[in-house]
Amino acid sequence: MNIYVGNLSWSTTDADLKSLFSQYGEVTSAHVIEDRATGRSRGFGFVEMDDEGARKAIQAVNGTDLQGRTLKVNESQPRESRPRY
């Protein structure tokens, strides 16, 4: 299952996400999304893990504090297609 993690601190790293979520199951991948132009965090990321661990993690981590920010955590939804100009 792919998990969306929002409201991340600018200093949060992939390793920070993996460490936080690995308490609830095996993490396949953890990635903080960065701005293409600046390389700076965009304040959200995605964690991929097994379904059972993901459900536990979503319940446990949503609304908790990481590096001074209250996290918004839920199951990732497919990205809607946007027209390209």
Please give a structural write-up.
This protein has 85 residues and is of the alpha+beta class. It has a single domain (2-75), classed as 2-Layer Sandwich (Alpha-Beta Plaits), CATH 3.30.70. 22% of the residues lie in helices and 35% in strands. The chain contains two helices and six strands, in the order E-H-E-E-H-E-E-E. A four-stranded antiparallel beta sheet has the order 2-3-1-6. Strands 4-5 form a two-stranded antiparallel ribbon. A hairpin with a 2-residue loop joins strand 4 and strand 5. The longest helix is centred in the middle third of the chain and has 11 residues, at 51-61. It is globular and about 40 Å long. The chain starts with a strand and ends in a 10-residue tail after the last strand. The model has no long low-confidence stretch (mean pLDDT 94). InterPro entries: Nucleotide-bd_a/b_plait_sf, RBD_domain_sf, RRM2_NsCP33-like, RRM_dom, SLIRP/GR-RBP-like. GO terms for molecular function: RNA binding.
What is the count of structural domains? 1
Quickly give the structural class: alpha+beta
* SSE sequence, one letter per element: EHEEHEEE
What percentage of amino acids are in beta strands? 35-45%
Task: Output the CATH class name.
Answer: Alpha Beta
Percent helix among the residues?
A: 10-25%
**Global mean pLDDT:** 94
